[in-house]
C-alpha cells in the first residue's frame, strides 16, 4: 500500500499521441492533437469529504494524508504526472456539436496496480482547460456528491461504471444558475477524483473523423484495441472490436433497465468506449415505473433520453461511432451489419434479464408474452419499480387462492395512486398467470428466489435521499452522507431498510428530487 502522492504514474496516452503542450488554458479549437496539457488550478482550502476504501484498496492506496488531499484537490502535481484534458466532440440531443472536450476534467496520470491493471485517475472540477468554452471548469458540491455516491452505488449494483476514489470540498464558491432562470447563486465547490481504465468516449473518435485526421484516428483505434481490448487481434480486429463495443453497450443499457437507472444525458460524448456508465449528471433511478420519465429538465421537450428510450438511443449513438470508424473501412457493409445486429443482441439480453427479475428458470419462447404483460401493467399502473419487484419475491405461491383482494393487498405498499377496477383485474390476472409459470419452473423455489434477489435491488440511491444528504452536508452535517456511503455497498440486502421507501410526497415536485438541470 502506498500513498497517492508517492505513486509513479505512467502516461501512455500522452506519450502515444500528439498533444498541445503549451499549457495554455484559454478556450480554443485544437485541431491536430488528441489532448492538451492542462494543470489543475489550485483551490483555497481542500478538505476531504469522501474516500472510497474499496476503490483505494483496488488501487493499492493507503489512507490519504495531507499531501494526498492536496493532490485530490489539484493543489499538488508530482513529477511523474502529465496532467491533460482530452479533445473530443459529440452529438448532443441528436445534433452534431463539434469540439467539446474535457471542459472540467483533468487526467492526472495512469496508475498501474501490482497485478498489472491500469487505472486512469481524473479530477472533475479542477479548473479551466482549453475545452471549458465559456464555463469555469468547476463543479459544485451538489453534483460532485451525486457523481461520487452514484458511481459507487452502480458499481455495487454490478452495473459497469467508472468509479470514484474521493470527494473533496475546495473552499471556493462556484456561481451557478441552477434553474436556468437568471438567478445565479454561489454554491460550495468540490472535486471528485474518478477512476476508470480509460475515459475515452465515442466522441474522441468522432472528433478525429470529423476533422479528417485519419492517421490519428487509425492510431487511436489501434491503441485502444492494443491497450484496452488486448484479446482482439488479426486482420479483422477493427470490426471485431466494434462488435464488442456494441455488445458491451447493449449490456450496460440492459443493466440500467434492470435497476431502473435513467442516465439523462446520453450524448455521444457521454458514451464510454469501454461500455461503462460515465458522466453522472441529471440521472435518476425510477421511483414510479414510467418509461417516459426523463430526469433532465433540458430533455423535457422531446424526452429523447427517457428511461424507455435508452436502448434505442444507445443504438443511435453506436451508429455515430460506426460513422466515425467508417473511413477505416473500404466498404461500410460490415459496420452496418453489426449495427443492425444490435436489436437481436439487445432483446436477447433484455428478456434474459427480465426472466431473472421474475425468477424464471429460463426464458421459454412463450414467456415473452408474460414478460410483456408485466411491462404493460407496470407502465399502466406505475407502481414503485423497486418495491414492486421486492414484493413479487415475497409472494406466497398459493396467494392466488386468497382471491383478488389478497393479491392487491400484497402489492399495496408499492402503489403511488389508487387502482381502478381495471388495474385491479389486470393485476390479478397477471399475478395468477405468473404464479402458474413459477410452479412450472424446473428448479426449486429457493433457487428461483435467489435469482430474483440478485436481479432486484432492494436499496436504491433515490434522488430525494441524495437531495437530503446534500442539504445536510451544506449545513455541516455529514451523518446521512456517511450512512448512504455504507448503504450503497449492500443494495441487495435488507440491512438498510430504513431507506427502502417510496418517494415521499414532499419530494414530488422539488428540484433535485425528481427533475434536475444540467447545471452542475
Ligand atoms: P456534460 O453535459 O456534463 O457531458 O458536458 C458537456 C460538455 O460541457 C463537456 O465538454 C464538459 O466538459 C463541458 N462542461 C460542462 N460543465 C462545465 C463546466 N462547469 N466548465 C467547463 N466545461 C463544462
Ligand atoms: Mg460529459
Overview of the structural elements:
By secondary structure, the protein is an alpha+beta fold. It has 4 domains: 4-202, no CATH class; 214-351, no CATH class; 362-440, no CATH class; 463-507, no CATH class. It has helices spanning 12-16, 53-59, 66-72, 141-157, 202-210, 214-228, 237-259, 310-325, 333-358, 367-381, 385-394, 403-411, 421-439, 445-455, 463-474, 479-487, and strands at 19-20, 35-37, 47-51, 84-86, 89-92, 95-99, 105-112, 118-124, 139-140, 163-176, 185-196, 261-262, 284-285. The strands form 4 sheets. Strands 3, 7, 8, 9, 10 and 11 form a 6-stranded antiparallel β-sheet that branches. Strands 1-2-4 form a 3-stranded mixed β-sheet, with no helix packed on it. α4 crosses α15 and α7 (237-259) packs antiparallel against α8 (310-325). Bound molecules: adenosine monophosphate and magnesium ion. Magnesium ion (MG) binds next to loops.
What attributes does this structure have?
single chain; 520 residues; alpha+beta; 4 domains; 6-stranded antiparallel beta sheet; 3-stranded mixed beta sheet; globular; binds adenosine monophosphate; binds magnesium ion
The Cα radius of gyration reads 24 Å
Number of domains: 4
Question: Would you report the number of β strands?
Answer: 13
* Morphology: globular
Which helices and strands appear, and what pairs or packs with what?
Layout: H1 12-16, E1 19-20, E2 35-37, E3 47-51, H2 53-59, H3 66-72, E4 84-86, E5 89-92, E6 95-99, E7 105-112, E8 118-124, E9 139-140, H4 141-157, E10 163-176, E11 185-196, H5 202-210, H6 214-228, H7 237-259, E12 261-262, E13 284-285, H8 310-325, H9 333-358, H10 367-381, H11 385-394, H12 403-411, H13 421-439, H14 445-455, H15 463-474, H16 479-487
Helix pairs in contact: 4-15, 5-8, 7-8, 7-9, 8-9, 9-14, 10-13, 12-13, 15-16
The structure holds adenosine monophosphate and magnesium ion (MG).
Amino acid at each position: 500500500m502506498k500513498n497517492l502522492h508517492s505513486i509513479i504514474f505512467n502516461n501512455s496516452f500522452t506519450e502515444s499521441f500528439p498533444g498541445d503542450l503549451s499549457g495554455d488554458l484559454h478556450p480554443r479549437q485544437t485541431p491536430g492533437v488528441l489532448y492538451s496539457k492542462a494543470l489543475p488550478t489550485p483551490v483555497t482550502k481542500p478538505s476531504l469529504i469522501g474516500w472510497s476504501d474499496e476503490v483505494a484498496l483496488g488501487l493499492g492506496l493507503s489512507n490519504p494524508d495531507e499531501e494526498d488531499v492536496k493532490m485530490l484537490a489539484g493543489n499538488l502535481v508530482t513529477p511523474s504526472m502529465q496532467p491533460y484534458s482530452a479533445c473530443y466532440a459529440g452529438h448532443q440531443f441528436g445534433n452534431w456539436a463539434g469540439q467539446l472536450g474535457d471542459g472540467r476534467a483533468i487526467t492526472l496520470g495512469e496508475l498501474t496496480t501490482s497485478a498489472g491493471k491500469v487505472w486512469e485517475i481524473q479530477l472533475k472540477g479542477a479548473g479551466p482547460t482549453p475545452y471549458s468554452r465559456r464555463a469555469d471548469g468547476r463543479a459544485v458540491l451538489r453534483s460532485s456528491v451525486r457523481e461520487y455516491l452514484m458511481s459507487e452505488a452502480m458499481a455495487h449494483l454490478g452495473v459497469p461504471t467508472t468509479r470514484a476514489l474521493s470527494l473533496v470540498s475546495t473552499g471556493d464558491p462556484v456561481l451557478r444558475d441552477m434553474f436556468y432562470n437568471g438567478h445565479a447563486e454561489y454554491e460550495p465547490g468540490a472535486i471528485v477524483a474518478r477512476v476508470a481504465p480509460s475515459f475515452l468516449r465515442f466522441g474522441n473518435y468522432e472528433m478525429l473523423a470529423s476533422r479528417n485526421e485519419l492517421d490519428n484516428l487509425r492510431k487511436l483505434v489501434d491503441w485502444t484495441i492494443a491497450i484496452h481490448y488486448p484479446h482482439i487481434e488479426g486482420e479483422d480486429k477493427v470490426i471485431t472490436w466494434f462488435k464488442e463495443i456494441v455488445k458491451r453497450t447493449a449490456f450496460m443499457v440492459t443493466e440500467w433497465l434492470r435497476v431502473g437507472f435513467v442516465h439523462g444525458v446520453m450524448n455521444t460524448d457521454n458514451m464510454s468506449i469501454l461500455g461503462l456508465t460515465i458522466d453522472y449528471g441529471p440521472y435518476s433511478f425510477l421511483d414510479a415505473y414510467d418509461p417516459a420519465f426523463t430526469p433532465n429538465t433540458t430533455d423535457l421537450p422531446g424526452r429523447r433520453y427517457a428511461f424507455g428510450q435508452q436502448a434505442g438511443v444507445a443504438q443511435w449513438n453506436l451508429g455515430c461511432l460506426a460513422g466515425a470508424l467508417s473511413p477505416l473501412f473500404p466498404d461500410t457493409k460490415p459496420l452496418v451489419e453489426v449495427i443492425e445486429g444490435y436489436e437481436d443482441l439487445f432483446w436477447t439480453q433484455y428478456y434474459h434479464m427480465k426472466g431473472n427479475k421474475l425468477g424464471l428458470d429460463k426464458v421459454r419462447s412463450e414467456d415473452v408474452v408474460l414478460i410483456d404483460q408485466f411491462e404493460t401493467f407496470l407502465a399502466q399502473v406505475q407502481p414503485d419499480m423497486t418495491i414492486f419487484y421486492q414484493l413479487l419475491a415475497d409472494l406466497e405461491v398459493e396467494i392466488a387462492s386468497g382471491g383478488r383482494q389478497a393479491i392487491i393487498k400484497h402489492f399495496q405498499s408499492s402503489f403511488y395512486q389508487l387502482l381502478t377496477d381495471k388495474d385491479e383485474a389486470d393485476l390479478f390476472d397477471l399475478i395468477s398467470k405468473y404464479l402458474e409459470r413459477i410452479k412450472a419452473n424446473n428448479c426449486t423455489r429457493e433457487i428461483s428466489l435467489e435469482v430474483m434477489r440478485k436481479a432486484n435491488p432492494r436499496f436504491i440511491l433515490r434522488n430525494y435521499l441524495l437531495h437530503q444528504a446534500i442539504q445536510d452536508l451544506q449545513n455541516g452535517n455529514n451523518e446521512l452522507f456517511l450512512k448512504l456511503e455504507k448503504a450503497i455497498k449492500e443494495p441487495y440486502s435488507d440491512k438498510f431498510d430504513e431507506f427502502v421507501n417510496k418517494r415521499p410526497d414532499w419530494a414530488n415536485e422539488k428540484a433535485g428530487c425528481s427533475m434536475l438541470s444540467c447545471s452542475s
